[in-house]
Amino acid sequence: MTTATTPALDTGTVSTASRRVRRVAAARAATGESLLHYLAVSLSAALLVLILAIAAAVIGVPALVGGTAMTVLTQSMEPNLPPGTLVVIRPTPVDEIEVGDVITYQIRSGEAAVVSHRVISKTYADGELTFLTKGDNNDAADPDPVQPLQIRGTLWYALPLLGWVNNVLNGANRPIVIGVAAGALFVYAAGMVFAAGRDRRRTSASTDAASTDIAPSDVAPSDVAAS
Fold this sequence. Notes:
The chain is an alpha+beta fold and about 230 residues long. It has helices at about 10-65, 160-170, 175-210, and strands at about 5, 70, 85-90, 100-105, 115-125, 130-135, 150-160, 220-225. The chain has two domains: about 25-65 and about 170-210; about 65-170, Ribbon (Umud Fragment, subunit A), CATH 2.10.109. The termini are close together.
């Protein structure tokens, strides 16, 4: 009878290799989730910055200079100021208004309705200054001269399409919009706190897993008899 010696399965090596495979898979999964997380955070931050910039342009900056944000509703000032354009006007002394300036004035003195047209001439009659205006897209000048008391201000800056946003922010739905915006900011902040906590837990778990790795042990080969 002869005997042959065959090596037994090195269970320590297999266990270590298995743990390494699991760690590599976990690391790859964590990397993919991290990339998605950072992408979501970047998009959220960009959206938040955009919202804050719009709010500043529509509400904050005009308030700082005593100006007013308004929306162009007609085509009389195309192509420079098409419908939907946000125009911000600021108070200007009438003697500083020049030909070529765009002024916003009351259509009828004392009434709320206003229009924004370009000054095409200034006239002094009997010691009183008046302005003749015209829409850039109109064929003829406005029929009535504009009195100083009618003028609300001159154009400071204009932003295409944001006039519709201005209508929403300053219209009857403003309380609803503010509530929704506040809720969105709260959800955003809560999401950031949750994500930060999750990342800390994952980092801690990865550290603990790495610290429990056991070096492979030497396993003695077993003798198997063969006839």
